[in-house]
Design brief:
The complex is a heterodimer of chains A (about 260) and B (about 290). With about 260 residues, chain A is mainly alpha-helical. Chain A has two domains: about 1-45, no CATH class; about 45-255, MetI-like (MetI-like fold). Helices cover about 75% and strands about 0% of the residues of chain A. In chain A, helix 3 (about 55-90) packs parallel to helix 6 (about 130-155), helix 4 (about 95-105) crosses helix 6 and helix 7 (about 160-165) runs antiparallel to helix 8 (about 170-200). Chain B is mainly alpha-helical and about 290 residues long. Helix content of chain B is about 75%, strand content about 0%. Chain B has helices spanning about 1-10, 15-45, 65, 70-105, 110-120, 125-135, 140-145, 160-185, 190-195, 200-210, 215-230, 230-235, 245-255, 260-290. Chains A and B meet through helix 1, helix 3, helix 4, helix 5 and helix 6 of A and helix 1, helix 2, helix 4, helix 5 and helix 6 of B.
């Protein structure tokens, strides 16, 4: 290590970390507060969590989110892995253009994606519902999966595949027995990120969901708009727990060798 | 089974292009049909006359783009732009020192990095709600102020709240790319500069900052773009008065039912984003040329 860091730099850093994390910690703490209105601590309770169970809208939203997250994750994991394989292992015309195109969904504002899909579905007379949400979620998470899987592929030893082929395995056998097992952590972390994005998305979903197909974030948004109550803290805490666990897993998978 | 499998492999073997496209086709088609085509349709919508029940009528018009010269909408455009720039600058000022500390944090590095990555992936809606919880009139901050004997301050539904929400939301996007370029920086260069008598401020201005420029530019882009298109932050923290262009778009597709005008607004966002990306690519190219 070189010279020590100046004290003011460490001060700024601590302040920024507090700014990034204290609001969430406060939100979580107050999900256990035994008071409906007060912003000061009254006492510990799990009441707000029990009340969530009694709310059919939240339970329906959770179910919709899990269905949408599950299906869209599997679809984008499969399609994304195939695209990544083609990009890493094949030279073809239009490769650079395609790679550039893959980054466009990542930088496109969500609101643009949302309304353009709404127009498409209206024009094609596809009724809004879980299917349209799933289509939209695959469209915005696919590129992320490609990038994560591609990173893993580029760090992978291709000699093993060649060895398998030399030993007489055909391409399909080699793919399932050699490529996929090695690639698995990359696919899994891409899938975890896709699920997290799907589980969290509000903006795009709000445009392409029909009246009977509200996902959890749509329900939560409705609650926030109506009135602030501790139940929102409780459901937020649950969402945070789920996504933190998934991101931690994805992080572990991408850093391990 | 085995024979058809061999036949397919036999056909594909001398055709590497076909093999590549077979892998690419499903994902690429998905993005074409559900990402690119919708945006093109939106573009077409933006130059068509408004229909009665939300859709469009046949014809061609530039009326929707012309409406943006109306002071009301010019105001929204200007506010969106100014706020996005301000948010980017604040994120840069706050984020750079943090990225620098992480890059030199030794064994704490991965933990500190994880703490930045975490909010990056945390539900934006939940994080915005956390801000409401702190800033509202009966929120935690005002609660403390009252205890200290200070009158509560109305913070929610002000530009301050929107800016706090935007910075809170997008700061990780600034820290991560700057960290990535500082991590690659050879710190012995700084020691060399120190030995040669450069003072801290000069070392930063002449060594650290130029070498971390790619990260700075990428970070600014990654903050500026979502800030331009943001809608949830101004919706929940800004109330109805402080509209950004994202709220205008949303409004046209719900209450106002003017889809072509909403499409035009949305396309303006898209065009600004593309311009920012082009600028970024140009800067990156020039840096690579200079490096070569």
């Amino acid at each position: 290590m070189g010279s020590r860091l100046p004290r003011w730099l460490i001060g700024v850093t601590l302040a920024v970390y507090a700014f990034l994390h204290l609001p969430i910690l406060v939100l979580v703490a107050f999900s256990f507060n035994d008071s409906k209105f007060s912003a000061s601590w009254v006492g510990f309770t799990l009441d707000w969590y029990y009340r969530l169970l009694e709310r059919p809208d939240i339970m329906r939203g959770l179910k919709a989110s899990l269905i949408v997250g599950g299906v869209s994750t599997v679809v984008s994991a499969v399609l994304g892995t195939l695209v990544a394989l083609a990009l890493a292992r094949h030279r073809f015309r239009g490769r650079t253009a395609l790679e550039g195109f893959l980054y466009v969904p990542i930088v496109t504002p969500e609101i643009v994606v949302g309304i353009s899909l709404l127009i498409l579905f209206a024009l094609a007379k596809i009724p809004l519902g879980l299917t349209t949400i799933i289509i939209a979620h695959v469209a915005f998470s696919l590129s992320f999966v490609v990038i994560v899987v591609l990173a893993r592929l580029e760090g992978m030893d291709q000699n093993l595949e060649e060895a398998a082929m030399i030993l007489g395995a055909d391409e399909i056998t080699t793919f399932w027995k050699v490529t996929v097992p090695q690639l698995w952590p990359g696919i899994l972390s891409g899938a975890l990120l896709a699920f997290t994005m799907s589980f969290d998305d509000f903006v795009i979903t709000s445009f392409v969901s029909g009246s009977g197909s509200s996902t959890l974030p749509i329900v939560v948004y409705g609650m926030v708009r109506r009135n602030i109550e501790p139940s929102i803290n409780a459901i937020s805490t649950i969402i945070l727990l789920v996504t933190t666990a998934l991101i931690y897993l994805a992080d572990r998978l991408t850093t391990e060798k | 089974m085995a024979s058809s499998r061999q036949r397919i492999l036999g056909w594909l073997h001398p055709r590497p292009q076909a093999r590549a496209w077979l892998l690419l086709a499903p994902g690429t088609l998905w993005l074409l049909v559900f990402f690119l085509v919708p945006i093109l349709i939106m573009l077409v919508y933006s130059v068509m006359p408004r229909g009665i029940y939300g859709g469009v009528d046949p014809g061609f018009t530039l009326e929707h783009y012309r409406r943006f010269f109306d002071p009301l909408y010019l105001d929204i455009l200007q506010r969106t732009f100014v706020w996005s720039v301000a948010c980017t600058v604040i994120c840069l000022v706050l984020g750079y020192p943090v990225a620098y500390v992480i890059a030199r944090a030794g064994r704490w590095k991965s933990f500190l990095l994880f703490l930045v990555v975490l909010p990056f992936w945390t539900s934006f809606l939940v994080r915005t709600f956390a801000m409401i919880f702190l800033l509202r009139d009966t929120g935690l901050i005002n609660n403390w102020l009252v205890k200290l004997g200070v009158d509560p301050i109305a913070m929610l539904y002000t530009p301050f709240a929107v800016m706090a929400g935007l910075v809170y939301g997008f700061l990780p996007f600034m820290i991560l790319p700057i960290y990535a370029s500082l991590e690659k920086l050879d710190f012995s260069l700084l020691e060399a500069a120190e030995v040669l008598g450069a003072r801290p401020a000069e070392r930063f201005r002449r060594v650290t900052l130029p070498l971390s420029m790619p990260g700075v530019v990428a970070g600014c882009l990654l903050v500026f773009i979502p800030a331009l298109g943001s809608f949830l932050t101004s919706d929940l923290l800004g109330g109805a008065k402080e509209m950004m262009i994202g709220n205008l778009v949303q409004n046209q597709f719900s209450a106002a039912r003017n889809w072509p005008f909403g499409s035009a607004a949305s396309f303006i966002v898209m065009a600004l984003v593309l311009a920012a990306v082009m600028l970024y690519l140009k800067v990156k190219d020039r840096e690579q040329e200079e490096a070569a």
